[in-house]
Design a protein that fits this description.
By secondary structure, the chain is mostly helical. The chain has two domains: 2-181, Alpha-lytic protease prodomain-like, CATH 1.20.1510; 187-296, Cation efflux protein, cytoplasmic domain (Alpha-Beta Plaits, 2-Layer Sandwich). The protein is built from nine helices and three strands. The protein has a three-stranded mixed beta sheet with strand order 1-2-3, covered by helices on one side. Helix 1 packs antiparallel against helix 2, helix 2 runs parallel beside helix 6 and helix 3 packs parallel to helix 5.
Length: 305
């Protein structure tokens, strides 16, 4: 429909929007395949599953978006010097507005599903469609402005602005995908986990440290160290570790896999340990340490705070 609008109007800005939509079709085709791959069960060659392909899919989509934006800008600069005669602008703007509404609704639907399914691919594709819709509505307003002012060079100027907007959104998507491929920590997820641990904290959990998260598609892999009383037997340790796992699994909005390493307490832990009736305590509790992003992610006990 957008290419049809371009042939009606000969508008460079509409051609820009149409080209960006073609990129969206190509990227969505790749996203479709990546969702299929990420849904495959774990196997011997992929013990963590196939979810990482979603980050690669988002990287490809973001790169294609940026490439489309760059081509759009070069084409628009050319048309600033060699403008094209425009025709039937109102008809073209109505078509663009209609396609923008369809893309916007589909994008919102994909964003909603991405939160439910914790899918980066659906989030990326939904974000792309919403970006497409915003640029289409901006383009429609620009076409109205051109129609009423008859300033032809605005066509290329609007196209350049849309190109810059597209490049910016492509960069954000690529940046997020690269961070995921490099196992960059998602502070929002880590903080959410810490909040749940604070809300359900037990006196046996003297401290939690070296907490890390990784995303594998819709799954979140979490590992941490927990300091427990050194005299606990294996059954007690297992019970406390299972309790931490339960607290997180029941609250975090994704499939989780938890690996917990149990550390024995040492005398330096006594001043912040809240365990009552401890027979091996070397000194009374003198402070309570609130778990935070700063101390839970460090690879050390909290006795030096």
């Amino acid at each position: 429909m957008k290419f049809g609008a371009y042939f009606i109007t000969q508008s460079n800005a509409i051609l820009t929007d149409a080209a960006e939509s073609i990129v969206n079709v190509v990227a969505s085709s790749f996203a479709f395949y990546s969702i299929y791959l990420s849904s495959l069960p774990r196997d011997q060659n992929h013990p963590y599953g196939h979810g990482k392909v979603e980050f690669f899919s988002a990287f490809v989509e973001g790169t294609l978006i940026m490439l489309a934006g760059i081509i759009i800008i070069f084409k628009s600069i050319y048309n600033l010097y060699y403008p094209q005669q425009l025709s039937d602008i109102l008809s073209g703007s109505y078509i663009i507005g209609f396609t923008g509404a369809i893309n916007g609704l589909l994008g919102l639907y994909l964003m909603k599903k991405s939160k439910m399914l914790n899918s980066l691919t659906l989030h990326a594709d939904g974000k792309h469609l919403i970006t497409d819709a915003i640029s289409s509505f901006g383009l429609m307003l620009g076409l109205f402005l051109i129609f009423f002012t008859q300033i032809i060079w605005l066509d290329s100027a609007i196209s350049i602005a849309i190109g810059l907007f597209i490049i910016y959104n492509g960069y954000r998507l690529t940046r997020k995908s690269v961070g995921g491929l490099m196992d960059e920590s998602d502070e929002s997820i880590v903080k959410e986990i810490i909040d749940y641990l604070n809300d359900n904290r037990k006196s046996e959990w003297i401290d939690v440290h070296n907490l890390r998260t990784q995303r594998y598609g819709a799954e979140t892999h979490i590992d941490c160290h927990v300091t427990l009383p050194y005299y606990f037997d294996l059954n007690q340790v297992h019970f406390q570790v299972s309790e931490i796992d339960r607290v997180i699994t029941e609250n975090v909005n994704s499939e989780t896999e938890f690996f917990i390493h149990a550390d024995p307490c040492i005398p330096q832990c006594c001043h912040y340990c809240s365990l009552e009736n401890c027979k091996v305590r070397s000194e009374p509790q003198t402070k309570k340490i609130e778990w935070s992003l700063q101390n839970v992610t460090k690879n050390q006990k909290h006795f030096d705070e």
